[in-house]
C-alpha cells in the first residue's frame, strides 16, 4: 500500500505512460527492494544477493543440462561472472536464514555444537567444526565424499578407494592434500 501511495505521488501523466503500467513496475520494484532488504537474516550487499539468486537458477539449469551437479567454474562461465563472485554468493546464501545453534540436528546429520562453556577445549573444538562446515561445501564433490565416508561413516581407506575407483594409496594422498588445504584455510580464517 505504501508503494501505491509513493507511485501515485510520483506519477506524471505528461510522460506518456498509463498509470497502471507505471504503478505495476514501480510497485514490483518496491516489493523486490523490501524483500531484498528485510528477508535476509544478515545484511548482504545487493549485488551479492542478486548473484546468489542467479547462481541458484544457473546451477539448477546446468544440473538438468549436464545430468550432474555443476562445478563453480561451470556456473561462473554460464553466468558470465568470476568464480570469486560465485563463491562469495554461495557463502552469502548461507546467511539468508542461518540455523540456530540451539536447533537439534536433523536425522542423518551431525551435531556440531552442544551446550559448551566458552574457552574450554570442547568449545574450541566446536568452533573448529563450525568453521569446517563452512569450508566443506567449497571442496570438490570427490573430496567431500572422501571426507564424509572416512570421518562420518567410518569407512576404511581401502573401502573408500574401492568405492571411488582408485587405489588405497591414492586415497591416502588425496586425504593428505585435502587436510593440508583445510588446515591452511582454517588458519587463514
Descriptive report:
The chain contains nine helices and no strands. With 189 residues, the chain is mostly helical. It folds into three domains: 39 residues; 47 residues, Winged helix-like DNA-binding domain superfamily/Winged helix DNA-binding domain (Arc Repressor Mutant, subunit A, Orthogonal Bundle), CATH 1.10.10.10; 68 residues, Arc Repressor Mutant, subunit A. α3 packs across α4, α3 crosses α5 and α4 crosses α5. It is elongated, with a radius of gyration of 23 Å. The two termini are 45 Å apart. About 4% of the residues have low confidence.
Observed structural traits:
189 residues, Arc Repressor Mutant, subunit A, 3 domains
CATH class descriptor of the largest domain: Mainly Alpha
CATH architecture of the largest domain: Orthogonal Bundle
Q: How large, in whole angstroms, is the Cα Rg? A: 23 Å
Work out the number of β strands.
0
Overall pLDDT, averaged? 80
What structural category arises from helix and sheet content? Answer: mainly alpha
Outline the fold blueprint:
Blueprint: H1 2-10, H2 19-38, H3 46-66, H4 72-79, H5 83-93, H6 121-135, H7 141-152, H8 157-164, H9 168-188
Helix pairs in contact: 1-2, 3-4, 3-5, 4-5, 8-9
Amino acid at each position: 500500500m505504501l508503494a501505491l501511495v509513493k507511485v501515485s505521488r510520483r506519477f506524471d501523466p505528461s510522460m506518456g505512460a498509463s498509470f497502471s503500467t507505471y504503478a505495476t513496475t514501480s510497485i514490483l520494484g518496491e516489493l523486490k527492494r523490501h524483500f531484498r532488504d528485510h528477508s535476509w537474516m544478515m545484511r548482504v550487499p545487493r549485488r551479492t544477493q542478486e548473484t546468489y539468486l542467479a547462481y541458484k537458477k544457473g546451477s539448477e539449469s546446468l544440473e538438468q543440462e549436464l545430468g550432474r551437479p555443476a562445478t563453480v567454474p561451470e556456473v561462473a562461465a554460464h553466468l558470465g561472472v568470476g568464480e570469486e563472485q560465485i563463491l562469495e554468493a554461495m557463502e552469502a546464501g548461507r546467511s539468508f536464514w542461518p540455523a540456530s545453534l540451539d536447533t537439534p540436528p536433523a536425522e542423518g546429520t551431525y551435531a556440531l555444537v552442544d551446550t559448551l562453556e566458552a574457552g574450554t577445549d570442547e568449545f574450541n573444538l566446536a568452533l573448529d567444526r563450525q568453521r569446517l562446515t563452512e569450508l566443506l561445501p567449497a571442496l570438490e564433490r570427490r573430496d567431500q565424499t572422501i571426507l564424509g565416508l572416512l570421518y562420518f561413516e567410518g569407512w576404511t581407506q581401502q573401502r573408500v578407494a574401492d568405492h571411488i575407483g582408485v587405489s588405497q594409496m591414492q586415497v591416502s594422498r588425496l586425504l593428505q592434500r585435502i587436510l593440508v588445504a583445510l588446515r591452511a584455510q582454517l588458519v587463514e580464517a
